[in-house]
């Protein structure tokens, strides 16, 4: 058994707070849950943040529940046992083991996704996250390939699922979560060895039109 | 929205009265936490309806309050409260006092139920049996206190936070706004919101450490 290394790039406190409070875009929640699956330290921090939620919840002024509603619930306590646990999505075959919330979206496996080539060495596949305002996609980058220098109009989260990349913020491997704020400017290079597979969540891009639009680099699409 | 729990408030059925009364829980916060945990155990082990009635009377009004604070109208909040409390009844055996206090556990169920109902989207949860889960490294001698005891320490620690920090925490949990949305809507610089939240967390983190309380 190979030693499992723990992540070194973590989301900031306020991102974990948004997740624990349930006040986070569903696509960003997916990226956060992906990191949490790989990161026992952040799972502990989320448990602490949820306990803060529990303490605040406990202080709320009680809102009386009607006697009828209470009685109706008690009448139905013995109805059926817990419904069957939801069917577990089958884990995709081939490719890295994906955290369950992500595996559920990938469904039939990585190769079943509608991959779209952005450059000869980079491809992406959109992931439909219900109710998300941010967009989620998987990106697959060939070993050693560089993503052209780019800027972000909004914030971006990148969760590494396989392989790795290096940028000004250091080396990123499976389990790491990079969070780039608006206007950060970086140039990731995939590491040698295997394909770099990432979950990328960012603000939906502004659609540019006009003559110059087609000259813009495909990563802004 | 109510598919999981079909009876609803409007059915007008009369429930059985609990056959045994538990002491009312108007006591010190710490004792309330322990008492709730004992009630949860009675529900989990013996399907004790009187224990569940005591849990209901303590927790359901807070669940409803939480949902209304987040903008649901009273009727919808009450319906979802029933669904949350039904989950408490059915999943009592999965409550683990080493991982969370009762209020925290119920808060997370209510949070997920709200997300489910409002967005028709699930809050992605971490499941302990996920084959991809990376476990914590070899258990270090635990300097943290049992999770069930956090709530009482936290209540005291929150009461001592500077007002602007406590207020930001409440907005995070009860206004359905991310920290950047709070910054935008309050006109505070994003950096100020972040640093206040981080200061609040640094202070509260003491509550999770062992030591004389
Ligand atoms: Zn982490």
In total, the number of strands of chain B is: 0
CATH architecture of chain A: Sandwich
What gross morphology of chain A would you assign? elongated
CATH superfamily of chain A: Jelly Rolls
Task: Indicate the structural class of chain B.
Answer: mainly alpha
Q: N-to-C SSE series of chain A?
A: HHHHHEEEEEEEEEEE
Report mean pLDDT of chain A, rounded to a whole number. Answer: 85
Low-confidence stretches of chain A: 207-221
> What is the terminal separation of chain A in angstroms?
41 Å
Structural class based on helices, strands and sheet pairing of chain A: alpha+beta
Strand order in the largest sheet of chain A: 1-2-3-11-5-8
Proportion in β-strands of chain A? 15-25%
Structure description:
The complex is a heterodimer of chains A (221) and B (213). Chain A has 221 residues and is an alpha+beta fold. Chain A has one domain: Jelly Rolls (Sandwich), CATH 2.60.120. Chain A has a six-stranded antiparallel β-sheet with strand order 1-2-3-11-5-8, with helices on one face. In chain A, strands 7-6-10 form a three-stranded antiparallel β-sheet, with no helix packed on it. With 213 residues, chain B is mainly alpha-helical. Chain B has two domains: 124 residues, Rna Polymerase Sigma Factor, Chain: A, CATH 1.10.1740; 68 residues, Arc Repressor Mutant, subunit A. Helix content of chain B is 56%, strand content 0%. Chain B has eight helices and no strands. In chain B, helix 2 packs antiparallel against helix 3 and helix 7 crosses helix 8. The longest helix of chain B is centred in the N-terminal third of the chain and has 21 residues. Chain B is globular. Chain B starts with 28 loop residues before the first helix and ends in a 9-residue tail after the last helix. The relative contact order of chain B is 0.10. Bound molecules: zinc ion. Zinc ion binds next to helix 3 of chain A.
């Amino acid at each position: 058994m190979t030693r499992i290394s723990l992540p070194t790039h973590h989301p900031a406190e306020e991102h974990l707070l948004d997740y624990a409070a349930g006040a986070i875009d569903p696509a960003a929640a997916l990226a956060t849950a992906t990191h949490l699956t790989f990161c026992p330290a952040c799972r502990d921090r989320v448990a602490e943040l949820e306990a803060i939620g529990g303490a605040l919840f406990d202080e709320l002024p009680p809102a009386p529940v009607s006697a009828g509603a209470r009685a109706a619930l008690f009448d139905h306590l013995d109805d059926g046992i817990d419904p069957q646990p939801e069917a577990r999505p089958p884990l995709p075959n081939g490719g890295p083991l994906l955290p369950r919330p992500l595996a559920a979206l990938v469904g039939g496996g990585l190769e079943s996704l509608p991959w779209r080539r952005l450059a000869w060495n980079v491809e992406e596949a959109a992931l439909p996250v219900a109710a998300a305002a941010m967009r989620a996609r998987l990106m697959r980058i060939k070993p050693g390939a560089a993503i052209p220098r780019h800027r972000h109009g909004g914030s971006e989260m990148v969760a590494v699922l396989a392989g790795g990349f290096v940028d000004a913020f250091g080396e990123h491997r499976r389990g790491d979560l990079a969070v780039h704020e608006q206007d950060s400017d970086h140039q990731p290079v995939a590491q040698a060895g295997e394909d770099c597979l990432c979950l990328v969540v960012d603000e939906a891009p502004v659609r540019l039109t006009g003559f110059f639009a087609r000259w813009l680099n495909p990563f802004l699409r | 929205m109510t598919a999981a729990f079909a009876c609803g408030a409007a059915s007008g059925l009369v429930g059985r009265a609990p056959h045994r009364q538990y002491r009312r829980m108007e006591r010190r916060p710490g004792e309330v936490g322990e008492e709730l945990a004992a009630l949860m155990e009675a529900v989990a082990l013996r399907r004790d309806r009187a224990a569940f009635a005591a849990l209901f009377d303590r927790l359901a009004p807070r669940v409803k309050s939480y949902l209304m604070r987040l903008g649901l109208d009273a009727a919808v909040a009450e319906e979802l409260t029933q669904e949350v409390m039904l989950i408490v009844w059915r999943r009592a055996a999965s409550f683990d006092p080493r991982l969370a206090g009762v209020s925290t556990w119920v808060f997370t169920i209510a949070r997920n139920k709200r997300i489910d109902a409002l967005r028709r989207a699930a809050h992605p949860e971490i499941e302990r049996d996920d084959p991809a889960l990376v476990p914590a490294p070899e258990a270090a001698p635990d300097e943290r206190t049992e999770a069930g005891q956090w709530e009482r320490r936290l209540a005291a620690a929150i009461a001592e936070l500077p007002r602007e920090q406590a207020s930001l925490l409440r907005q995070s949990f009860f206004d359905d706004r991310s920290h950047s949305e709070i910054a935008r809507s309050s006109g505070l610089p994003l950096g100020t919101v972040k640093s206040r939240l981080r200061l609040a967390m640094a202070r509260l983190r003491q509550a999770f450490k062992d030591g004389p309380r």
